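To whoever picks this up:

The parser on our side crashed when reading a file containing two proteins. I've narrowed it down to the boundary between the first structure block and the second sequence. Both blocks are reproduced below exactly, byte for byte. First block:
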Amino acid sequence: MRPVMLPALGVRFALFLAALALAGLALPGATAPRPTASPALLALAAAPASELIPSPPETKTVTVFLVRHAEKSKDDPRDPSLTAAGQQRARRLAELLAQEKITHLFSTPLKRTQETLAPLARARDLEVTSIMDVDEQVAALLDLPAGSTAVLAGHSNTVPALVAGLGGTVSATVPGRSGPQLLDDSYDRLFVAILTPPAGAPQPRLRRLLELRYGAP
């Protein structure tokens, strides 16, 4: 499944469009209308993702936000910190997800992914679980209980693999030693995977994949 591209839209409105599509009220990939300031839309835009995405009776979705770490500095060639621009992007991520009921945060043990989630972790008083192996990260995401909302900060060479592990495909990648990877200067891509548990199966399946842009291009 390839992501539906929704550039320049907020998370709230994008998830509202996803809810319409899942309900059969919009076509996947259709051009999104500009949001209006109607009271009904504003009420929907203030709701968390778990309330916007319709599910079968007695079934809750799992929502996963996947990002690459923010801009890294050159202070340490092995484990660099974020630049000032990267720190600003990390704060923007926390602001963007302010209305989400985040339950889990995941990163790698490297500083640039941990610092990307630091503002969000502080705002929600959540611990960040550090996992380096991509397969173990995917397993942790697929093992989340229904109703969970997770954010995972990865790397240019792991985000496409993470999306693939959840059943999706990332476009606009370049070949890398371990498989497709994001462009080196691409820091603003935000993927939203909406998972629903299939009947009779232990793991959730990908129901919808969105791609948004956040922060400076």
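<<boundary where parser fails>>
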Amino acid sequence: MTGMAARGAVARRDGAALAGAAVAVAAVLAGGAHALALAWPWDVSIGGWLAPGQPAAWLHALSLMALVALLAHAPTASAAAWRAGGYATAWLAGTFWWLFVSMHTYGGLVAPLAVLAVLALAAFLALDYALAAALWSRWRTAGPGAQVLAFAALWTLAEWARGVLWTGFPWGAGGYAQVEALGALAPWVGVYGIGAVAAALAAAPVLLRGGARVVTVVLAALVWGVPGAGAWLAERLPDTTRPAGARGGRRPRGPGRAGGPAPGAPRGPRAPGAGGPARRAGAAARAAAPARRRAAARAAPGVRAARGGGAPGAGAWLAERLP
């Protein structure tokens, strides 16, 4: 009996180790998907869902859903922190991998140290997300709606902290993956607000129950599964921008602008004497400009001597080359 109990304990320990390794691999893969969602790197196009160099909002949403599922089943706050930390480390390292090129190719740092530097920076910045996940795990006893809101709020706070604290390094914020799907919200909430909406909409199908889950699944499918849905939304939201110079009812003037003649448009007859004095004054000023420059060049040595030195001829050289 003692031998059987020992073998059972070993089997349980090995099973827990395998489960932990599987969770770690899942977190890293989900974080890698987050990095790929910011800009699809391969020359593979799939309808309106994937295009080289373009963001993939649906892939970003799936990566967040996977993260929320991993956090929801974390047994402790420390386990949630480790899972979010692995996710964020893979995401950030896959986002600013170009630092390796900067340090190794152009800086001359040996490749292993350059790799370690990138991973160390990613792991350090991932601490914000690990802390957010540990705090969120305290909300697991709350209602599903509160969990969704808490996840979106804490995740956005971690994004903001990464972009502000320790001089800030906001490269690759999650909201940039949603510029096609949720970019219409940018004038009101900015990239962090877009990321918050995406986080809430991704967490809702995982955490909610019953009819609320069905509604959020349908909404997520419409936002991320229908190509062009973001453009459709942007066309129907009020325009929040106006042309430069249009504040206070004033409209910009000039060729090709609102209120001005288009290029090549016929001009009406000029009023008698209109623009004559002003035009003559402008021509006189342009004609006198060379004389002013020559006078400044001649005066430069005296001014330089009065001020206590300087490179001989530098002022004259500068004066001759200014317009």
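After patching the parser it read the second block fine. The radius of gyration is 31 Å. Residues 2-38 form the longest helix (37 residues).
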